[in-house]
Design brief:
Helix content: over 70%
Strand content: under 5%
Number of helices: 18
Number of strands: 2
Largest sheet: 2 strands, antiparallel
Radius of gyration: 20 Å
Strand order of the largest sheet: 1-2
Structural class: mainly alpha
Shape: globular
Order of helices and strands: HHHHHHEEHHHHHHHHHHHH
Length: about 350
């Protein structure tokens, strides 16, 4: 395992001006999202007394970042602030809450399946589902979570939401196949890497934001989706930076150079390789010297360049909602952007 190395935080002007000072997800993570209880309650109703119940509840009982539901919930409130007609607002908010639950179920179901594909032993600081039970339990558990999520579409009863949520599943599958193809890991192609970030991470946030906006004020749906797309990409780039500097214990999943050991090229490595012939040679040779690769990435400024990429996408997210009506929820969106960028876990 590579030694941990410090990295430089490059803060754009909008971060310096931010009033609320939160530099990690610790506060967010410590506040349990209320929707988790609703999701677990759905499982308990559907699976009372069956062996699948503890498997389906497992990752929802562990402490996750909860960043997706907080983004989508804040987006719903920011869009609702534009509504002058408050009639049927309660029904709109209930459907928006269902969208938020769906997105978190989609994300968590993908973790069940990812841990099978990646042979991961750790998830959210505890044994993964395959490690705690078996790969079969993980596959079936993930499928069940998806099935419960699909059922919510009938309650939401919206063609736009159905379209968005179907797109998410397509994107997640396409993103996993893209990663399995190895194309991102054999080419110096930052755009392809960022596309993978969208497919595997940002699509849930982007389509979730579009969905809650369409339920309230469809004129804001494009900007809401753009916010979700950009902050989702920024979040994943920061995640990939943390793979170089954080331990598995800090991340709650494999870290400390896990991407390098798996042969996965992310933004820090792609950008550093452009500066270093030696690093390109090591990658071409397929060396497993993780510590040496991390050292070169740091020396060549790969972490700082990757952070600049994350900051660029965070700026685009903020600009997407810049002209929106001022509200507490709009402020929450701005604070969440800062949390996503400045986090250390």
């Amino acid at each position: 395992m590579a030694a941990l190395v410090p990295w430089l935080v490059i803060r754009p002007s909008w971060q310096i001006m931010m009033v609320r000072q939160v530099n990690s997800l610790t506060v967010v993570q410590g506040q349990q999202w209320e929707g988790q209880k609703k999701i677990v309650s759905r499982f308990e109703t559907a699976l009372c007394g069956t062996d699948l119940l503890p498997v389906s509840k497992y990752l929802f009982s562990a402490a996750g970042k909860n960043i997706r539901p907080r983004i989508i919930s804040a987006m719903a409130g920011a869009v609702n602030a534009h509504r002058e007609d408050k009639v049927e607002m309660m029904m709109v908010e209930q459907k928006q809450d269902l969208v938020t639950q769906m997105c978190e179920m989609y994300h968590t179901a993908s973790l069940y399946h990812d841990d099978v594909i990646d042979n991961a032993d750790i998830r959210r600081g505890q044994p993964s589902v395959p490690a705690a039970w078996s790969t079969k339990h993980a596959v079936i558990g993930g499928d069940f979570v998806l099935a419960v999520a699909f059922n919510l579409l009938a309650e939401i009863d919206s063609e736009e939401v159905t379209s968005c949520m179907s797109r998410v599943v397509k994107d997640l599958v396409e993103g996993e196949l893209l990663q399995m193809s190895g194309k991102v890991d054999t080419e110096d192609n930052l755009d392809l890497y960022l596309h993978k970030c969208y497919l595997k991470t940002a699509t849930i946030i982007a389509n979730g934001c579009r969905s809650v906006a369409s339920l309230s004020d469809s004129s804001l749906a494009d900007e809401a989706e753009q916010f979700g797309r950009e902050i989702g990409i920024a979040f994943q780039v920061v995640d990939d930076i943390l793979d170089y500097v954080a331990s598995p214990e800090e991340l709650g999943k494999p870290g400390g150079g896990a991407d390098i050991l798996a042969g996965v090229r992310t933004a820090p490595l792609i950008l550093a390789a452009r500066q270093s012939p030696r690093l390109r040679r090591l990658l071409d040779e397929g060396t497993g010297d993780c510590e040496e690769i991390v050292k070169i990435v740091v020396e060549e400024g790969g972490l700082e360049m990757a952070r600049e990429v994350a900051n660029e996408h965070a700026d685009k997210a903020l600009k997407a909602v810049e002209g929106w009506k001022e509200s507490d929820c709009k402020n929450d969106l701005q604070e969440i952007v800062k949390i996503c960028i400045d986090r250390n876990m």
